Amino acid sequence: MISQIVVLVVSWIFYFLIHSLLASIAVKQLVATHWPAAMAYYRLFFNLVAVLLLALPLWFTLAWTGDWLWQWTGVASWIVTGINVLAILGFVWSLRFYDMHEFIGFRQLSEQLKSVDDQEHFQLSPLHRWVRHPWYFLHCY
After folding, report:
1. FRET label pair with 1: which of 12, 84, 103, 126, CA 20 to 30 Å apart?
2. Half-sphere exposure of 85 (CA within 13 A, CB side)
3. Residue range of the domain that includes 81
4. 134/128 Cα distance (integer angstroms)
């Protein structure tokens, strides 16, 4: 069981490190300096790598065979499921406040943008009134 926990923790740490490294300005500047033509593809590449690398820690998480830390049952299970559905609906609703073509990387590719900085301007959604990162907040459920 300890080895399963170690593998699970290490896989998540690996994911977070690679994700943060690839999101850093330093790596983007390195790519822009040495391979400027690749910058139009960088955001799309970043998202593809993020999704592919996420498979490993998710696999270990879903393959967990140890005891549950907690498990919702009865009425509490229905309440938690309802909160999860509301979180998913909130996430879908919040998508309209973001430029998803920019976020995914399609705009950079179609316009052949080579800038290290994101092109999207920060836009406050109604959820920003209550939390700094609406997607992170909605993910918590």
Report:
1. 84
2. 6
3. 70-141
4. 6
Does residue 47 share a domain with residue 12? yes
Yes or no: say if 42 and 109 are a contact pair by the CB < 8 Å rule: no
The C-alpha atoms of residue 54 and residue 14 are separated, in whole angstroms, by 10
Give the relative orientation of helices 2-23 and 25-34 as an angle to the nearest 10 degrees.
Answer: 50
Of 91, 97, 94, 92, nearest in space to 123 by CA: 97
- If 0-12 CB within 10 Å is exposed, 13-18 middle and 19+ buried, where does residue 55 land? exposed
Per-residue pLDDT tens over the stretch 69-120: 778 889 999 999 999 999 899 888 888 888 888 888 888 888 888 777 766 5
How far apart are the C-alpha atoms of 46 and 80, rounded to whole Å? 33
pLDDT number for residue 110: 85
Domain end (from 67, 91, 115): 67
